[in-house]
Amino acid sequence: MKAKTKVAALISGRGSNMEALVRAAQDPACPFEIALVLANKADAGGLATAEAAGIEALCVPSKPFGKDREAHERAVDAALRERGVEVIALAGYMRILTPFLVDAWEGRMLNIHPSLLPKYPGLDTHARAIAAGDTEAGCTVHLVTAGVDEGPILGQARVAIEAGDDDHALAARVLKEEHRLYPAVLAEFVRGL
Ligand code: GRF
To answer: Which residues form the Formyl transferase N-terminal domain (predicted)?
Structure first.
């Protein structure tokens, strides 16, 4: 049987998408394993979740690097390579990447974004969809390229925006779909490597 592809999940906070990937990877038939969970903030809640699941949880704090985002990325990149990571899954990783990391992992770094890209890249996606009067929202898994939230789309899931939805209600409905979409798209992606 082909060895499972080693994936690192990069997080900055709660890490519920990372958790969904970890859960999916527990299925023996899953073609990927979560080899590492890496956060840029020590207080990222997802670090404890990963540890509890028996996965290495590493913090490479961005703060000490100040404005030198590339130097931080070089430290992250070294940690990933030391562990033989093959694919990066950004999962609520709240850093704008420099060309260094984007180029180093071209075609091997995925992200999940809580909108139907190309609509609403960036932040506050749910409030923006509601304010625009949209009738549907959703989430997108895409390859990471230089432009923020701009890379080739690998998969999307849609949800209805219901009358009376505020951004919290909509975010919760979209998040459920994120947790289904990301493991499915990542599995398909690594099968194609
Ligand atoms: C998710 O909505 C994801 O789409 C976005 O940031 C949020 C992270 O949530 N990129 P979590 O940390 O995975 O719970």
So the answer is: 6-186
Question: How would you label 57-95 residue by residue, b for 16+ Cβ within 10 Å and e otherwise?
Answer: bbebebeebeeebeebbbbbbebbeeeebbbbbbbbbeb
Residues lining ligand 1, judged by CB closer than 6 Å? 11, 13-17, 91-92, 112-114, 139, 175, 178
Q: Residue 87, SS3? A: strand
Q: What is the mean pLDDT of each run of 10 residues along the chain (193 residues)?
A: 93 98 98 98 97 98 96 98 98 96 98 98 97 98 95 98 97 98 98 97
Rounded to the nearest angstrom, the distance between the alpha carbon of 90 and the centre of ligand 1 is 9
Q: What is the DSSP string of 150-181?
A: -SPEEEEEEEEPPTT--HHHHHHHHHHHHHHH
109-113 vs 32-39, strand pairing mode: unpaired
Look up the pTM and report it: 0.97
Domains of the chain: 5-192 (3.40.50.170)
Burial classification of residue 102, based on how many CB atoms lie within 10 Å of its CB (0-12 exposed, 13-18 middle, 19 or more buried) = middle
- What is residue 181's predicted lDDT score, i.e. its pLDDT? 99
Q: Look up residue 113 and give its two tokens.
A: 């974004």
